Structures are given as structure tokens and as C-alpha cells.
Amino acid sequence: MNSPTVTLNNGVEMPLLGLGVYAPQHNNEVQQAVEDALALGCRLIDTAAGYGNEREVARAIAASGLSRNELFITTKVKNEDQGYESTRRAFDRSLALLQLDTVDLYLIHWPTSPHRLDTWRALESLYAERRIRAIGVSNYYQSHLHELLAIATITPAVNQVEFSPYCYRPDVLTFCREKGIQLEGYAPLVRGMKQNDPKLMAIAEKYGKSSYQVLVRWSLQHNVVTIPKSVKKERIQSNFDVLDFELATDDFETMNTWYDNTRIADDPSDLA
């Protein structure tokens, strides 16, 4: 797999397709999943302190034999670690667990902490120290971004949100594009909840692809960085086997109308 890339607002190139490793019931399988993904050509790995598997990601990176500059590694500060000094300490812990000198992207995981603006200042300081190649946020909608942009000296490079046809928020995508923020989508497969949706199955059959592959392709066609999660090698390979077809405009636009607020995570709209 040779994933296309996007160029972030600071000039850093980021793969458009990668592997998410949120797997609380399967952390013992995460190392093998990351090893499998890297062997298949994946170069973007998305983890987080809150996932408890940064050490497993490190072991997989070491086992891969790949050079550091071939990889794009994302991690996130968890909510209870937010605040200026505590975020800097949390970042040091993540680096130690990942056995890296830098991470490619560091995100505020949720806009739930009263210390989130201090957390952003910590990210800006770490970025200025060249310990992070790009900084961003996760689960931020417009109100959270307005608050952040009012004090930020650096515009977030990335905003990672839940992104599928069933929780497609074009207003969030448009806002981020207008601000030069790259959208990244997690849970594109909706944890399998929609794999048997007749509308989705009909489109999948038309292209000779699986429901999951159509969901990943739809996300990529929005030019949204996409990180499907799996710990099974055959599923990982299938999720990456989406670069050889394109959804026709009518099918793509039809999928844009499927919003029903099906989510696997909290709705950021509910977070003040």
C-alpha cells in the first residue's frame, strides 16, 4: 500500500490512510496488528495515552525494521493530564513509552478539561522545541475551535473527529478547511454497526467491494485522513485495499445524505 499524503498547514506531509489502535479489549493484540499494518505498507499509526498501548506500538515499530522518517506516529494527551505542566509531563511519558525522540502529531484528545487552553499552550511550547512535528486537537467542533483560535499563536494542523456517512457534519469539515485545519476521521467503520445497511450493501455490491471498503473510500474522497481500526490482519489488509477504485459522484453524494447521528463516541456538540 502506498498511501497518498496530505500536506498540513505547516508543510508536514501526513499519510491519508493509516491504522487506529483504540482497542481496549485487545491491547495484547495491538503489537501484532501494528506489525501487520507496517508490513502491508501502512505508515500512519494513531495511538493515545488513554489507549494504554503506546508501549505495544513501540515494540511493533522496533520489530518492523523501518527507519523513523518512514513513519508518522500520532498520540494524544488524555483528559486527566491536561494543564500546562501536566501536559508537558504527559508528553514525556508518551515519548518514553513510544521510545521516540519526537512524535509526528500530538493532539488534545477531548475538549472536556477546564485546562484545555493551558494544554494548547503546552503543545505550542513543545512544538517550538521541535519535539513535535505538528500539533492539533481531537473531537473539537466549531465552538471549541473558536475558543482555541482566539488564544492560539499556532493554528491546529489537524482536528480528529468521528467521521462516517452516519455522523457526517459538513459544517465541521467546511469550517476546518476554511481555517486551514486538516480533518482526520476515526471510526469510519462505525464499529460494524452499519455493515448490513441495505443502502450501503447495494453500493458495495456495485463496486465489488465490502461495506467496510466503501466506508473507507467515502472518507478518503472527502480528503479526510482516515484511520480504520482492526487487530485482524486480513481485515487490516482489506481496509487498506481501497486505492484501486473511486465512488462515482452520484454514489458519493448519496452517501453524504445518510446522517442519522450514529456514533461510537460522545457527541462533541454536548461538550461545553
TrEMBL record:
SUPFAM superfamilies: NAD(P)-linked oxidoreductase. This is Aldo/keto reductase. It comes from the Bacteria. The keyword Aminoacyl-tRNA synthetase does not apply. InterPro entries: AKR (IPR020471), Aldo/ket_reductase_CS (IPR018170), NAD(P)_OxRdtase_dom_sf (IPR036812), NADP_OxRdtase_dom (IPR023210). Transmembrane segments: none annotated. Belongs to the aldo/keto reductase family. It comes from Fibrella forsythiae. Keywords: NADP, Oxidoreductase. Residues 23-256 form the NADP-dependent oxidoreductase domain.
